[in-house]
Amino acid sequence: MSTTVVVTPFGQAQQLAAACVLSNIKGTIVPIGDFTGIVLADTGVEAGNEAAASISKLAGKHEVLLLVRSDVQIDAGHYRHGSRESDVPAGLALKNLPDVLEKLLLEIVPAEEVEGNIPTSSMTKLQASAATMTPGRAAVARTALLWIVVAVLAGLITAFGLTLGLGGNSMAWAVAVFGAIVLAFSLWRIYSVLTKGAKR
User: What is the DSSP letter of 105?
Assistant: First the structure.
């Protein structure tokens, strides 16, 4: 048996849960003092290394700490930008972090009993995407959605005008032309909004 915990610089459990769900990392998110960690569902050493490497890519310049307890020892290491940078004395790591980490590693306290825990299975990918969205990107998404609705309506108006216009109705042709202009403008706005949003 082994227990694997990845301690991260994420300040909020919800943020780490969302990042793990989007990266297909399964486990239970737990607050660890000012940090958050994930107790992995798949507790193999290889799975721990992969999870720590993946999370460290999301943490930017900050390090993440991997701790794996096997029957005989605790292995600890720092990860940054997707790779293991250094080994860490496990005793030193445990001494400098809250007691809950040691209790999790030794299985004295299950992750599900830590106050504020979030199982990754409780969050959908859609919820995770929303949780990781900055206010700026949320505004871009709302604007794009508005223009998509306008484009759909313009498409329906254009189709309606063309249907009646083929019967010789000149007013219907005018409606179809108007709908096509609005549709083209809407598509341009959607492209413009999403292009600018991608740069944020």
Answer: H
Residues 6+ apart with CB under 8 A from 172: 160, 161, 162, 163, 164, 165
Q: What is the domain partition of the chain in residue ranges?
A: 3-131, 135-198
Amino acid occupying residue 144:
A
Give strand ranges (E) for the chain: 3-8, 27-32, 35-40, 64-69, 74-80, 83-87, 118-119
Closest CA to 18 of 133, 167, 103: 133
Query: Is a pLDDT exceeding 80 seen at residue 17?
Result: yes
Instruction: Locate 195 and state its tokens.
Output: 């292009």
Q: Note the pTM of the prediction, 2 decimals.
A: 0.63
Encoded tokens for 177 = 């032309």
Tell me how far apart the alpha carbons of residues 148 and 141 are, in angstroms, rounded to a whole number.
Answer: 10
| 3-class secondary-structure state, position 72 | coil
The values of phi and psi at residue 67, to 5°, are -125, 125
127 pLDDT higher than 90? no
**Cα–Cα distance list, 90 to 107, 153, 176 (Å):** 16, 61, 71
Which tokens in the block code for residue 53? 């490497």
How far apart, in whole angstroms, are the C-alpha atoms of residue 154 and residue 83?
Answer: 50
